[in-house]
Amino acid sequence: MSFTDLLQSTPEVLNVGVTDFAEALRAQGVDVVQMSWKPPRKMNAEIERLLDRLL
Amino acid sequence: MTTSSRSVVRPNRYIDSVRLMHVSKRLSDHPGVTDAFVVMATAANVAMARGAGYRSDALAHAGPDDLLACVTAIDPGTAERVLDELDALLDEQPSGERTAATLEEAIAQAPDAGVVAISVPGSFAADLAMDSLDNGLNVFLFSSNVPLEREIELKAQAHRRGLIVMGPDCGTAIVSGAGLGFANGVRRGSIGVIGSSGTGMQSVTSLIHQFGAGISHAIGVGSRDMTDEVGGTSTLDALDALDADPTTEVIVVISKKIGDRVRPRLEQRLSASRKHIIECHLAPGGPTLEETARRAVAVAGVMQSSPIDEGVVPERRSPHPTRRYVRGLFAGGTFCYESQMIALDAGLETRSNAPLLPHMLMADPDLSTGHCLIDMGSEGYTNGRPHPMIDARARCDRLMREGRDPETAVVLFDVVLGFGAAIDPAGDLVRALKEVEQDSDGEIVLLTSVCGTDLDPQGLDGQVKTLEDAGVTVYPSNAAATRAALQAVGVEP
Prior knowledge:
The complex is a heterodimer of chains A (about 55) and B (about 500). Chain A is an alpha+beta fold. Chain A is built from two helices and two strands. In chain A, strand 1, helix 2 and strand 2 form a beta-alpha-beta unit. Chain A starts with a helix and ends in a 20-residue tail after the last strand. The termini of chain B are far apart. At the A-B interface, helix 1, strand 1, helix 2 and strand 2 of A face helix 1, strand 4, helix 6, strand 5 and helix 7 of B. Strand 2 of chain A pairs parallel with strand 4 of chain B.
């Protein structure tokens, strides 16, 4: 869906990551699909700073 | 008191850190539990658990793909019973929740979806974002630590395909009434917003709502978009879209860093717009977020209502022998920035861990000396700990420390409401605020502003009342609270 079309009506959202954000969208009556993402098996130093801006 | 500690591991079970924080709290709230946490078993977390005295075979073999739960309780039976609840808590899903294992599966379930909202670690986020664009989906990219070259690549692809990347490091967007990330409940209206600052957008959209007007769309472009390296791609594309949007009559552009090469391109594009443009470049001498919201509402032709009496000025007290300084503790980084700006315009240089100008950097962010305005949402405070917008504990600790400092005259802080934020941000601060009052015999002036609206899940009026009942003077904006803080220490803004 183009960006211009996105602005024409309430979007349906695919959420990847923090489930709180999906719940916040549902609380607003927005349709959401939550993707159950998990990091690949090989971890690196980056993983130790999960969601830097939140935790 | 003797206690009993137990730890269990759930192999190859990944849950995001914010959800784990909620699960940890549910376990901690059980009577008889003195300590409980649920984390991914990274090397650092395993070392932390061992350091806290937890020992088990499972812990000894746990790896970063595994989930680790540790509980200490008053007796073994309580610890066991609490841990028995763990799996049910981990499996808990709101009723009616739709889930998918992959992007392809998600698209199959929701073929009309317009945007993917991404909040996973930065290095993985870029790949997910590119997959989304390749599938014709717009991207809201909350994640930070996305490499610069990936951001440039993503935005070039988005531009080619008529899509947008909102981010990276984008905290807020409102698209056709749907708030993404941390966003406030606001009425629909004719004012569009484009911004590189999440809290700045929250503030301006909330104030526009409070002043009686409404928002068409609020497009976050990420904190680096207007730099020369990125070239303003998302900003310029957002301008095109809002120019073409029949519901938008006024466009507010909120910026912090604008590159020298981007600036003339942006100015030219703004002057060619068919809509009324209000620029808010946050810098010394520039407009405040409140002034920006007022101008936008006036230009939109809406009669302004002022939600709270702006005439409230804290009682001017006689000079105190030791209490001379303002201590600001902010959850919103842009509020910290704006307060520094207002102080500097009044001739007062403050110190900060996130300074407006390099020489204003605090020597030690954990030790306030002189006037200090601290961004408690900055990386130094949120590495491994929750952001203050969702968890108040770090801010409460610092509040109480400032309260015990005989040099503190004023404590200035912000309270941010909205979807995605804590359930009761004001309530979470009350105990600490009361301790500050007690420890200082009521000598410290407590000032705040609440960024939010009556449509937020927390409810603006109730949050304001909670703070007022705790002895805090509440202002309608961060700018107003900052001016009052300066006046309270004898600086005329």
